[in-house]
Amino acid sequence: MAQTPQSFKYQAVARDASGDVVADQAVGMQISILQNSTSGTAVYVETFMPTTNEFGLINQNIGVGTVVSGDLATIDWSTATYFIKSPCLFTENKLLTLQEVYEINLVI
What we know:
By secondary structure, the protein is mainly beta. It is about 0% helix and about 45% strand.
């Protein structure tokens, strides 16, 4: 029997509107897990505020942030296709990137 993940790793590079890397800064993020399509129902949403490294890289575990809605542990990954709505990044009240949506490929 497969185990439900309690968290999983996510990486992104923070860039400003000009495409420049946002290095060594705290950035606000919101991640949504959507069910069945890129515009599907959000079954899990969380926020967090990681700090980028010198290359703008964010390393985050999804499932350990502040939960806005849903429960990661109750998602049945075997019954549907899921998508991750990548973060809307903010720093100093300025939008850094627009949201994009990608399919999640988990091994369960």
